[in-house]
Amino acid sequence: MLERIRLESLREKVTTAEDAVKIIKDGMVVGSSGFTKAGDSKAILAALAERGKTENIQVTLMTGASLGHGIDGKLADANVLKKRMPFQADPILRNKINNGEILFIDQHLSESAELLHTKNLQNIDVAVIEAAYIERDGSIVPTTSVGNSVTFAALAKKVIIEINTEVPEEVYGIHDIYQAEDYPYRNVIPIVAPWNKIGRKSIPLDPNKVEAIVFTNKKDSPADITEPDHKTTAIAKHIIEFFENEVQLKRLTDRLLPLQAGIGKVANAVLTGFKDSNFYDLTMFSEVLQDSTFDLIDSGKLSFASASSITVSAECYERVLGNLSKYREKFVLRPQNISNTPGLIRRLGVIAINTAIEFDIYGNVNSTHIGGTKIMNGIGGSGDFARNAYLSIFVTQAASKENKISHVLPMVSHTDHTEHDVDILVTDIGLADLRGLAPRERAQKIIDNCVHPDYKEELQSYFDRACERGGHTPHLLEESFSWHLRFSETGSMKKKTTEEVYN
Amino acid sequence: MLERIRLESLREKVTTAEDAVKIIKDGMVVGSSGFTKAGDSKAILAALAERGKTENIQVTLMTGASLGHGIDGKLADANVLKKRMPFQADPILRNKINNGEILFIDQHLSESAELLHTKNLQNIDVAVIEAAYIERDGSIVPTTSVGNSVTFAALAKKVIIEINTEVPEEVYGIHDIYQAEDYPYRNVIPIVAPWNKIGRKSIPLDPNKVEAIVFTNKKDSPADITEPDHKTTAIAKHIIEFFENEVQLKRLTDRLLPLQAGIGKVANAVLTGFKDSNFYDLTMFSEVLQDSTFDLIDSGKLSFASASSITVSAECYERVLGNLSKYREKFVLRPQNISNTPGLIRRLGVIAINTAIEFDIYGNVNSTHIGGTKIMNGIGGSGDFARNAYLSIFVTQAASKENKISHVLPMVSHTDHTEHDVDILVTDIGLADLRGLAPRERAQKIIDNCVHPDYKEELQSYFDRACERGGHTPHLLEESFSWHLRFSETGSMKKKTTEEVYN
């Protein structure tokens, strides 16, 4: 075990999680590794949750993105979290945020590191970083994600390292660690293709800041893999057909352009759909690599994938970490302020596919808030990608909960992505290509192609009546949220009789 | 005059505007120079409007941004415009857009050229470009703006050039003409400081595409310069004090970082405010240079300004174009897909100051739509800058029209900038620094600092009652637009008695 601390002077820092966690004091800002459940702290944050059960301690916790092993829930339950950023996906934490018990800052994932470096956020007191091992120079070889760890290591006053012996030391080389210079001397980020590696293989760290090292041997929480259902399959089919048509029209080649896919079953279904297509030599410039990425690599369809984390099933985790000699030339993990940076997304011409909670007739997208008030997870990287993508695609099911909820609405109850940033909308019903269309044209196309039949007539009626009143973006403000309000009151967005509601 | 056509073979193309405009046919897409009234077509678009009076002809018109000399209104009046993009600021055109007679696409100004190059928009049939003169190689030396002219010249099937003899040939060298490569072979844009010049001095053009050349001698429409009033002065004071405090806290130096300022009197007031400050060696990385820019250059406060156009008063127009030897090392005009590109804005750490129509308690900003439906001008470059800026500042007056309108509201009626992209909000009442704050904290800060006293109590009540119902972003959807609706019904957002409305 100790040989994983190659800088021998650091070996004396090895301790237990219970001991190490004492470094964290009430009121501190903690920066922890972890990006969509990958490469997170398994020991220190768990020990912090334990402390919270018997002690009044509250911290601000920043991470890369969401954490695994229910740790956000345990921290929330133990009342340890005062403020959390930039992303979460935990049901217990979510409830406490929505109750107003815990403050949450929902940030573009490319921006958190920027905000720390520019002192626009409070500085990190203690960084907690999962490592495969520590290099002779004290630098850290991270594990299955990079996230914001480079920034946390650079800016934190004190650092706790968790060496996870479940992760083979052979991960050395799968990371590309690069940080932009400070203002006003910032230079270009010299990436012009997803496979460009421009940085170090380990995270630089001043060894004098290392206050404790703990050993763990726990795998990442596995991703929940659900088989595609008829809706996700339909969405994936619409998208693949759209790409095929773009190739026909010579707007894209059958190599497409680098793909970004948000997390979840639709993204997995779309990527899986490429397996039986004529597309080849595909690449990804994304934030998370899921099972489907490695399946596409195995099938020879995908040449290279760039992201900030690997979030996969237990089977895929073994497959990838057990065959790094096979996969290491096929992917790279970067800091999230590189994987998600606007300039690179535009420079590479990324095709971005992200999930909406709901969208409206003009193509504004709500990715985060149920009923306009209750947060689900957070905006994540969707804004980084959608705004700067070559093509920005959003997907959602047309209706859900026995069709009592329509996901295509007169007006979104919360706006994460404005119509300016949305090119293509897809539901299981169909695809609306909104490029080159003015708002009124967008509305008709969305009503024609995307809305569930149960809601089509009423949505058309809303739009027609709004147009009568006029405006570049016609709306009836007194009625814009009537579907949401009806759902709150009756449990259904439908205007129809009770009989029809339960059909 | 003819010596302004240095490629002699093109001299035979000289003709009248009436003759040249015949190249434009019904249904075509026309791309014209012109960015915020600078460097626009003076002859051809006017001749097109004339044709429209007696002929059924409708075109899609793309420009850099807004046009001068009321030409958008004349074209709209003559029923010549089918579709217009990416920006406008004309009262007649605006009305026709809001009536649904003319379609308008409101685009981030950095994106139009991208969308054309990637074939995500219909291609340009005819480009109309104002020039100072034509070089020996057929390339065009533009005038007071660059806008989208480089893209129009590259992609249009046919080109009409307007040589404006009002503009001295000495403008040669004030432009930096650079275009990114096509996908997937795009390289870095090698600008790391506002003063970097990376391109040619003229717009490349295949002379075979030139179908007509017309001569004009008309100045740009002058900018409307209004003296700062007590509100704009108050807003400017809050912002300058904020900067001074950032310097105190060592988050900024007294050189600040490159400034972007939206068009209008607040931006002018803020820049003017620097004249009597301790800041020095300031720079701009903006889209429009206004009078205040040149005043700051004259006062020695501003070292360099980068933008896509010069939109100034008649006096300042003479001063700048008549003294190019003095000013030419102090500023540069770039294509708008360079001046506004997200990657550069983030790389340079721009401080962005833009104007809001209204903002809400969470810091979402409406920059475009009156009452949620009627467009004013368009989003322009505000989204390019706000999203990627080091600091994103939005300003508006707290209340207007005898305080019958509050510009700080429970919920914006249209979202152009989400709370993720808004750091600082300023009204004449005060400034709210929202960095590092969760939504509920943002709301309280905005209510405390920005709202007009007449509306403070009711806004606090809305927020408090929304919080009781819960949520990460508490709202009462049934009441969110009640202030807008009250204004439609009563002519005032105030809940109070008629007596108080007229106080």
Automatic annotation (TrEMBL), chains A, B:
Belongs to the acetyl-CoA hydrolase/transferase family. Residues 9-214 form the Acetyl-CoA hydrolase/transferase N-terminal domain. Residues 326-462 form the Acetyl-CoA hydrolase/transferase C-terminal domain. This is Succinate CoA transferase. The active site is at E287. SUPFAM superfamilies: NagB/RpiA/CoA transferase-like. CoA binds at G262, I263, G264, K265, V266, I357, N377, G381, K401. One of its GO terms (biological process) is acetate metabolic process. Keywords: Transferase. GO terms for molecular function: acetate CoA-transferase activity; acetyl-CoA hydrolase activity. The lineage of its organism: Bacteria, Pseudomonadati, Bacteroidota, Flavobacteriia, Flavobacteriales. It comes from Chryseobacterium muglaense.
